[in-house]
Amino acid sequence: xxxxxxxGADSKIGSQIELILEGLGKEFIGTSRxxxxxFQKGRVHLDLSQDLSEWEIPENIDTxxxxxxxxxxxxxRLNPISSNFVNVTNTLFLIRxxxxxxxxxxxxxxxxxxxxxxxxxxxxxxxxxxTVYGKQKLQVEDCLKKLPRTSIVRLSKVLGNEVELFGDWxxxxxxxxxxxxxxDLRISPIPLxxxxxxxxxxxxxxxxxxxxAGGNKDVSYYEISTEIAEKLGVNPxxxxxxxxxxxxxxxxxxxxxxxxxTTSSYSLLRMWSPDVWETINAIVx
Length: 285
Hints:
This protein has nine helices and 13 strands.
């Protein structure tokens, strides 16, 4: 990897990859849809919601981390046309152009290309996305598999150093206020820093194909909130069980399982994600 392009450098994963590349002393340039930010050194303007026919690839790029997308399940469901334009049409338009230039593209996908009926979905397992977002990601995956020099990295839930929802729970619990959390909504989280390092390692080693990075088990938001209450030493009765279904979230967005079979990917890269409780406890300090 000589010089990298971070498409969506302002995103959660893009920002973390940028920090890792800086630490490695790697040369890179990032894209942003914010015109003001693009006056900064190392930034170019790129808005995936706009016409990209005149957009030019920066010079001397040999690797792309494609981190820009519309990731909100609700937004994609309510706005399938506009989200598809960003997540599929323009994403593929650019990746095909990168491929024509012999540029290696690392594309983060999602565990939601599976339907969540079974745990530990394998890399070559049957895909069956139920959400609009998952279907859009799979469309891109299917096209990338026909292109050379592409890497698909399917991720389970990625948690940053701060999670607004968890912070809100902590504040309310410390104030002795009741919280209601979903017992039917599960995640198998991995740390943001791990997800970013995983993608950088794929790029550095020039590994092509499909890879899985995810947590070792599923935990519900209710289980997480009870763990937080115990850690804070507050009355556990402050945590009340509720359901995503009763909150109006469609069943398609409430998978029973989100874990991925990571055995071959972790072994190849010699990287292993922390236990999910280590990931969560590192955030709630």
